[in-house]
Amino acid sequence: MASWRLMAALLLHLLPLAAMAAQDAFVGVNIGTAVTDMPNPTQVVALLKAQQIRHVRLYDADPAMLTALAGTGIRVTVSVPNQQLLAIGQSNATAANWVARNILTHVPATNITAISVGSEVLTIIPNAAPVLVSALQYIHAALTAARLDSRIKVSTAHSSSIILDSFPPSQAFFNRTWDPVMVPLLRFLQSTGSYLMLNVYPYYDYMQSHDAIPLDYALFRPLPPNKEAVDSNTMLHYTNVFDAVVDAAYFAMSYLNFTNIPIVVTESGWPSKGDSTEPDATLDNANTYNSNLIKHVLNNTGTPKHPGVAVSTFIYELYNEDARTGAVSEKNWGLFDANGRPVYVLHLTGSGSMLANDTTNQTFCVAKDGADRKMLQAALDWACGPGKVDCSAMVQGAPCYEPDTVVAHASYAFDAYYYKMGMAEGTCDFKGVATITTTDPSHGSCVFPGSNGSNGTFINGTSLAPSSNSTSSGSSLSFHTGNSISCVTISVVLLLSAVFL
Ligand SMILES: *[C@@H]1O[C@H](CO)[C@@H](O)[C@H](O)[C@H]1NC(C)=O
Ligand SMILES: *[C@@H]1O[C@H](CO)[C@@H](O)[C@H](O)[C@H]1NC(C)=O
Ligand SMILES: *[C@@H]1O[C@H](CO)[C@@H](O)[C@H](O)[C@H]1NC(C)=O
Ligand SMILES: *[C@@H]1O[C@H](CO)[C@@H](O)[C@H](O)[C@H]1NC(C)=O
Ligand SMILES: *[C@@H]1O[C@H](CO)[C@@H](O)[C@H](O)[C@H]1NC(C)=O
Ligand SMILES: *[C@@H]1O[C@H](CO)[C@@H](O)[C@H](O)[C@H]1NC(C)=O
Ligand SMILES: *[C@@H]1O[C@H](CO)[C@@H](O)[C@H](O)[C@H]1NC(C)=O
Ligand SMILES: *[C@@H]1O[C@H](CO)[C@@H](O)[C@H](O)[C@H]1NC(C)=O
Ligand SMILES: *[C@@H]1O[C@H](CO)[C@@H](O)[C@H](O)[C@H]1NC(C)=O
Ligand SMILES: *[C@@H]1O[C@H](CO)[C@@H](O)[C@H](O)[C@H]1NC(C)=O
Ligand SMILES: *[C@@H]1O[C@H](CO)[C@@H](O)[C@H](O)[C@H]1NC(C)=O
């Protein structure tokens, strides 16, 4: 009996990680705003939709941005800015006020799923460290009072530099200076079912390693087996820096006896441009890193220590922040410029060829050959009416008026709708008279939405979206077949233990 009870207790402890294993990992994007011509929130949200970006992290709780995100289904992690941390950590009333003003006014219309209380507090504003855990607790208490604590997780984003001796990962530990903060913090994350937020920058690890870390290892490029890093304590093989850092964090937590706290990577990326001291900040490397990172995360590969356990990741970052000070690379971490033009086109499909201008797999939605004219006309009318497509390009004198045929006009309207819906699956159908093509239907001055890759960093359109069929809410949890077996096993054992208790 006692052993069953123990086993049940142990299994309950394992559940959060098991739950992460059952869930698909997502890729989100950070939205920094140090941009000279910062697009307005409506434009930002239009870009997110066009690129099928379903998860974002903000560095504050900007009301205009949160309002623009309302009703989009996009999951939002908001932040308590560092400069507000001291006040919130010292007063539960201030914390309650912050939650009332920045959270309660926006949920449920805006799907806020997490609050990052401060950013890299231990390394950037160590003087606030003594109140960090109180700040999390006060914010959490305010959410609990509003019955939002199960929906909104509370955590704080750490720099991975608080992890020492991070290779081999099995020997990693948190800088002991911070044990008085980390232990209660991890206890808080555990008891509230939250996760460790970690910023992972293989770029800096590589830069600071003075060639000890091969570039390929930082970029997730395949290594010859004899070059793979092996942790001699665990015999686990590491094929990339990202996994090694995430595992170092798992080991550092388990060193403090916390073995069931999941990790979400709140920042990771690679700069596409640098000065002469930053020769590896290039378009190609940025493209390679982010393309491989996205594939790695969405594949639910997990890490060598926890294979199959989701490590959802927010790419740093959406826009190049040209107004940031410091090295040239600081201004060049973005996927897009302020006009929403991709800095480079990610390679998310197929062979992993390294063409920065690869638009070969760009897709468009057009009228099907030989489709019934009446049905095309009806679909065209629907798109320009209830479908709310902007059909002004097809009025007389406008660029897409010629050729004045139902087929040509329907094609334009279908494609505009397809892009308006973020190229989601099922949005190029129109009762069977539409079809997807890779041939750009633009002609003359009539530019079809999606043409020339200007809107198409994520060639495949669905790449950052959950691979499910739902287009708007995306609320269906998809289960990763590879892991569901272990979850089933656990619930069966739990059932058994319930019988025996
Ligand atoms: C703050 O904490 C005090 C003491 O624990 C409690 O009485 C009070 O209700 C809390 N206030 C808020 C706004 O949560
Ligand atoms: C640990 O953190 C303290 C406080 O920030 C810092 O002074 C010290 O250099 C860190 N130790 C290492 C080895 O980085
Ligand atoms: C972790 O647990 C072990 C075994 O129970 C114990 O010896 C050790 O002191 C604990 N470490 C911490 C940091 O609590
Ligand atoms: C995807 O995951 C499978 C196992 O789940 C693994 O064998 C494969 O190498 C992974 N692919 C990538 C690109 O990570
Ligand atoms: C795309 O190609 C053109 C010319 O071939 C080049 O000028 C441009 O810089 C390329 N764009 C990117 C993002 O590499
Ligand atoms: C484009 O798609 C084709 C077929 O779907 C695939 O074979 C090819 O590798 C893709 N090209 C790139 C560059 O991803
Ligand atoms: C999406 O789901 C609906 C109903 O569940 C189904 O009819 C439709 O064929 C699916 N579309 C795609 C593209 O899988
Ligand atoms: C990009 O997308 C926007 C809105 O989705 C659209 O108005 C614009 O025409 C597109 N540009 C190109 C070149 O496709
Ligand atoms: C798209 O690319 C084609 C061929 O590279 C070029 O002729 C055309 O002008 C481009 N269209 C736009 C809108 O940039
Ligand atoms: C788009 O991505 C999905 C899921 O990753 C994949 O099944 C599909 O083949 C891709 N489509 C193209 C055109 O590459
Ligand atoms: C909000 O996000 C959560 C977590 O991803 C999801 O379970 C829920 O369905 C979403 N709600 C809406 C309205 O999109």
UniProtKB/TrEMBL annotation:
Question: For this protein, what is the EC number?
Answer: 3.2.1.39
Cellular-component GO terms for this entry: plasma membrane; plasmodesma; side of membrane
Q: Where would one find the signal peptide in this protein?
A: 1-21
Query: Which coarse location class applies to the principal site listed for this UniProt protein?
Result: membrane
Q: Tell me yes or no: is Translocase among this UniProt entry's keywords.
A: no
Q: Which PROSITE patterns match?
A: GLYCOSYL_HYDROL_F17 (PS00587)
Per the record, membrane topology reads:
Lipid-anchor; GPI-anchor
Biological processes annotated in GO: carbohydrate metabolic process; defense response
Q: Where in the cell is it found?
A: Cell membrane
Q: Which UniProt keywords apply?
A: Cell membrane, Disulfide bond, Glycoprotein, Glycosidase, GPI-anchor, Hydrolase, Lipoprotein, Membrane, Plant defense, Signal
Recorded protein name is glucan endo-1,3-beta-D-glucosidase
Organism for this UniProt entry = Helianthus annuus (Common sunflower)
